[in-house]
Specification:
The complex is a heterodimer. Chain A is an all-alpha fold. Chain A contains six helices and no strands. Chain B contains ten helices and two strands. Classes of the chains: A mainly alpha, B mainly alpha. Chains A and B meet through α1, α2, α3 and α6 of A and α1, β1, α6, α7 and α10 of B.
Chain lengths: 124, 260
């Protein structure tokens, strides 16, 4: 007999293309905002830890806003089926951990680039 | 211990206009050029003849039967499986059944497989040539300048990498030369390309290299793959499936779902 998890997936299947599209949309948003955060951190003249902390806080804030504005409303209007255990995030993204942490690593390179550029231009 | 005084270096502001901006603009423009070169050079896949199309489609048929068997009823699944396995084992779908059991043709001599290799070669060249050109351009014109200060401290190990061509021993490793700005651009411009060219662009070589590092999916219909062996393996995969349907026990689930 198939395992319970396998059966769940077969009863309510997830389309891989849509999952990939969702995470690509999120990735786009995060890499764009990371560059903007880099610009603001450079203009503010943040250095070392405070700059990285700034990035961490704001990228998590972006993800949280994305969750609140885009995911939570659809979840409220159509509650999850009683059999699925993955929760709301599991319907749109691969895993909750992936959703919350991928943004920080996605945009880091872009953040450092624009941070360095604007720090150099403003403070020099 | 006394506080180490912060090093300040007075630089000509012209450095920004004549080094920093040219490198950045050239990096962005090469990325865009690389993207469009890849788009232009990618050749459309050649239409296959009838028999090889049949070979590939029938193998895909077996694979989708294996992955979606739960949507079929037991009887329907067994009928399909019997048909497919018999055909696979007799080699009815093979492109040329006479060559069954012989080793596959050498991919170097097969003209149809040369196309794929040429495509790969072109992509490799499109990555390597601009990189070497820009590297040597920066080395020739801009080596030895200190242009910027990183906003975060680094250990002394980075000094040789960031300050290549700058022969000052006591300088803080935070000061970076033009070649390190090039590296920073190479890593960080992906988001700019995402913004400019859309998501599935070919502009950044970093993303492509990452893709090559990762585990590659086994080639399905590439050169040098024996289709007969693929058919036999797929027949074996189908034979071991223990059938169950999504509709098994659906009444129970329905009754559980109804709340009064």
């Amino acid at each position: 007999m198939p395992s319970q998890q396998e059966l769940d997936l077969q009863i309510s299947p997830l389309v891989q293309e849509s999952l990939a599209h969702n995470s690509r949309t999120l990735h786009n948003l995060q890499s764009l905002t990371a560059s903007l955060f880099g610009i603001s951190a450079g203009i503010l003249g943040l250095e070392s830890y405070s700059g990285f902390l700034f990035y961490l806080v704001f990228s998590l804030l972006t993800t949280a806003l994305f969750y609140l504005l885009r995911i939570a409303p659809t979840a409220l209007s159509s509650p999850a089926s009683p059999t699925s255990k993955a929760g709301v995030l599991g319907r749109y993204f691969r895993s909750p951990l992936d959703f919350w942490t991928a943004g920080v690593t996605n945009g880091l390179a872009g953040f450092i680039l624009t941070w360095t550029l604007f720090y150099g231009l403003v403070r020099a | 211990m006394a506080q180490v005084p912060v090093q300040t270096i007075h630089r000509d502001p012209q450095l920004f206009y004549w080094i920093l901006f040219p490198i950045t603009i050239v990096m962005i423009l090469t990325g865009i050029l690389r993207h469009y070169a890849t788009v232009l050079m990618s050749s459309a896949p050649k239409p296959l003849d009838l028999r090889s199309t049949r070979e590939q489609r029938s193998l895909l048929h077996g694979i989708s039967l294996r992955s979606n068997f739960h949507a079929l009823s037991r009887r329907s699944f067994h009928t399909r499986r019997d048909v497919v396995i018999t055909a696979y084992e007799s080699g009815a779908y093979l492109k040329d059944p006479d060559r069954k059991g012989q080793p596959p043709a050498n991919p170097m001599t097969d003209p149809s497989s040369m196309d794929g290799m040429m495509g790969m070669m072109k992509n490799q060249m499109a990555m390597i040539i601009p990189n070497t050109l820009i590297m040597s351009w920066i080395n020739a014109f801009f080596s030895g300048y200190v242009i910027m200060k990183l906003p975060f401290p680094l250990t002394i190990k980075f000094k040789s990498m960031l300050q290549a061509g700058v022969g000052t021993k006591d300088m803080d490793p935070r000061w970076m030369s033009s070649i390190s700005w090039y590296f920073l651009c190479m890593f960080g411009l992906q988001s700019v390309f995402n913004f400019l060219l859309g998501n599935d662009n070919a502009a950044s070589q970093m993303a492509q290299q990452m893709g090559q590092m990762g585990p590659q999916a086994p080639q399905m219909f590439g050169p040098g793959v024996d289709p007969n062996k693929q058919f036999l393996a797929e027949a074996e995969n189908l034979a071991v499936i223990e059938h169950h349907s999504v509709l098994d026990g659906v009444e129970q689930r329905l009754l559980e779902g109804i709340r009064i």
